Amino acid sequence: MNAMREQSRSVWMDVEVASHSAPLTENAKADVAIVGAGIAGLSIAYELALRGHLVVVLDRGPIAGGMTARTTAHLAPVCDDSLSELLSMRGQELASGFQASQSAAVDRIEAIQAELDIDCEFRRLDGVLFLDPASEPSVLDDEVSAASEIGVKVERGKGLPLETLQDRPFLRYPDQATFHPLKYLRGLAEALEKKGARLHAFSAVEEISEDHGRVHLRLASGHTVDASHAVVATNSPIHDLFALHTKQAPYRTYAMGFEIERGALADALYWDTGDPYHYVRLTSGADDKDILIAGGEDHKTGEANDAPARFAALESWIRMLVPSLGPELYRWSGQVMDTLDYGAFIGRESGRERIFVTTGDSGQGITHGVVASQIIPDLIDGKDNPYVAVYDPGRKPIKAASAFLTENSTLATNLAQYLMPGELGSVEELEPGQGAIVRNGLTKIAAYRGEDGTLYQRSAVCTHLGCHLQWNSLEKCWDCPCHGSHFAPDGSVLNGPAIAPLGEVESSGHTRAAE
């Protein structure tokens, strides 16, 4: 069952990245094993292959079928949590390094798509930050000041050709970019296969260990991969139980695609100063039409189950700005991992010599993934890289102490839900297509009734660290609010850090691990 990917469909998902990728059906050896086949995993694999490394890429699902397929692909190297916040949190040197690395990532995408002749709609354009009605004008002043100190080019403007924004101030960041992410990754995957890399879809990794100068990966199928080095490039790390998860938190974001006449809106990347902020871009559609993509309405994963209201608010917001907008074509959601200091965690895993990690996209997963492809291959090859300190996984964001306490309070609040009554009195109350938590004696059951009447009952305990799950009615999956795991109604894992499926429910009310 792949329920999560059946319920909402992004504008990119009609593109198949690696049609010939098959599960790993034998033990394998490699110079580098990469877990995760999104933008980070495939970009790292490509750079390593260019250097002559034998690479094996493994993914729980289809190649590029995870959160990368749910991006809106703004290639905006400007920190989307604001430059002034970035400067305050990281200081001038590290903030400048962050911006330089993000710009270098966009340059690298531009170079690769040109070298490989990938038709992925890559283009340079402006980024436009405009004032949200609830924001003080001084917000833009702070951004201009921070941009000057960090070395980011920005220009002031006033009056955008959007309803209600004709007199509102904005900032223009030149030389940003955008592209079609899955068309790009399809070209990258084809290049990888020509260079001898092996891409294996539906090959879930359940254990990663390091000893005697080698890394060993054990798959759910029982097959193994033996490698000199391993890179964990999943949305959330599957090999780390606790350390990194305390420094990042999962958030769900929403996006919609609408038909729009070509030329009706200037081709640019737009975002506002709201909290959470909204963002807009264009991509090509059929005939003389374009598709306008609008996103936002974020909330912490598992802390809301009101997708229809989120989409309604998002549609209301964008139709107010663009009254000529055509019909809705797509709607989807995705998960981002927000870190405490706005930068991803990229590099050598603390205490490990041969295991590397990249996580914490912080809303800029595309550029962060390519940044990882510049840092990690250098570390594997024993070379210096100017951005290592910016993204060091072992860093402790001291200035984010209050955010650390706030984000990690989710765990205590979540576990207290085990003492609360169930959402329904019994599973007999479930309607077709409905999921709910039902109490069964001293335990909680994650119960779902399929459209055909089939009843699924699994433990409501996340198999990562035991958090209480919440039903996601849009994606038809169980979300873990603590660290971002997702499970299908049948209990199978859709997204890490969880590795094991949800426990089955026995008639006695006890649970056991699903076979």
Q: Roughly what percent helix?
A: 10-25%
CATH class annotation of the largest domain: Alpha Beta
Strand content: 25-35%
How many DSSP E strands?
A: 26
Distance between the termini: 15 Å
Write down the overall mean pLDDT: 89
CATH fold-level assignment of the largest domain: FAD/NAD(P)-binding domain
Query: Which spans have pLDDT < 50 for at least 5 consecutive residues?
Result: 1-6, 508-515
Please identify which CATH superfamily of the largest domain we are dealing with.
FAD/NAD(P)-binding domain
The CATH architecture of the largest domain comes to 3-Layer(bba) Sandwich
The major β-sheet equals: 9 strands, mixed
The Cα radius of gyration reads 22 Å
Shape, principal axes of CA atoms = globular
Oligomer: single chain
Structural class, from helix and strand content? alpha+beta
- Count helical runs: 9
Domains counted in the coordinates: how many?
Answer: 3
Task: Explain this structure.
This protein has 515 residues and is an alpha+beta fold. It has 3 domains: 3-71 and 182-246 and 342-405, FAD/NAD(P)-binding domain, CATH 3.50.50.60; 121-178 and 249-336, D-Amino Acid Oxidase, subunit A, domain 2 (D-Amino Acid Oxidase, Chain A, domain 2, 2-Layer Sandwich); 418-512, Rieske Iron-sulfur Protein (3-layer Sandwich), CATH 2.102.10. The protein has 9 helices and 26 strands. Mean pLDDT is 89; it is low at 1-6 and 508-515.
